[in-house]
Amino acid sequence: MKNVYLDSAATTQMRDEVIDRMITVMQEVYGNPSSTHSFGRSAKSLIEQARKTVACYLKVKASEIVFTSGGTEADNLALNSAIRDLGVRRIITSKIEHHAVLYTVEQLQDCFDVEVVYLELDSLGNIKTAHLEELLKISDKKTLVSLMHVNNEIGNKLDIKKVGSLCKEHGALFHSDCVQSVGHYDLDFSEIPVDFTAVSAHKFHGPKGVGFAFIRKNSGLKPLIFGGEQERGHRAGTEGVHNIVGLEEALKLSLDNLEEEKTHITGLKTHFIEKIKTEIPEVKFNGNCADLDKSTYTLINVCLPVPADKALMLLFQLDLKGIACSKGSACQSGSDKGSHVLNAFLDEEDLKKPSVRFSFSRYNTKDEIDYVINTLKEFISS
Prior knowledge:
The chain is α/β, with parallel strands linked by helices. The chain has 2 domains: 134 residues, Alpha-Beta Complex (Aspartate Aminotransferase, domain 1); 241 residues, Aspartate Aminotransferase, domain 2 (3-Layer(aba) Sandwich). The protein contains 13 helices and 12 strands. A 7-stranded mixed β-sheet has the order 2-8-7-6-5-3-4, with helices on both faces. Strands 9-10-12 form a 3-stranded antiparallel β-sheet, covered by helices on one side. Helix 6 links the parallel strand 5 and strand 6. The longest helix is centred in the last third of the chain and has 22 residues. The chain is globular and about 65 Å long.
């Protein structure tokens, strides 16, 4: 039996270089970054260097980067403060956002009586830009638009620059969850008119438990967590220096090697599409995931020709064969509600069939793809 990890959209394997650097920091730079003695100053300098590195890659100011515990906290920071501090009274979003956004929006609607509008989707799960433009025109309420750059389940890519320009034209704030895109794309936020983003290190071969928010200068956003002046007053709490340095190293390596690794991973995805079409002709591809121009190169989401009674055993059987993949996002594990993303646009017939997300990284091979598809074929024909 092989061990094949095809669930990198949930979390990635850490790079050896990242682990080595984190260990060195934990062993040698253990001072509290808020302390004024040399031990503290050494720790603080590593954090500020990491901030500058991140800012340099994203083409923004270092003061616009706030380190967090991950993407969920960064999403919460932007959404909560927009309502509480910036006077936003209406949120425009979609039904296929990550639950870090959807659940937060629902909470804000309940607590602050905020108007929430969900955008119409086409048959492939793309937001209708014309509907967004119409909504931005018809109300004078201060509005925040929250739309993810790359969908974590089906891989659809948002035209983030176009959406940002629409928001700017109509005086709306724009928040985008970029957890699945930062580290996998060369993004220039000096050119993309987005006000707030969320990022997680563990999506690009960094450690879990650390990420950052990009907060456009002079936005007026205020803290979600109080108790200290860390992160220039944006987030209280002693910083995890080793995690922040791990994030820096992971982002640096991902973006410095981007073209080479993107070519490799795109080759894996292309091979997967071609192979599964040949071996399982009845397969369907959810969303835009089979379109290399309209979806991320890092994942595929397939609807398999398996009856409902047999579908319940699919992931279990794959796990027995050493194959790690996902029915939906990892945050959905243990839920029997199915994927809220697929429920938003698939028809009833396809919703009865199992849909599986396979997501790739630099560590995967074409032999692994062949093994997975052969295993799927055996399960379907058994």
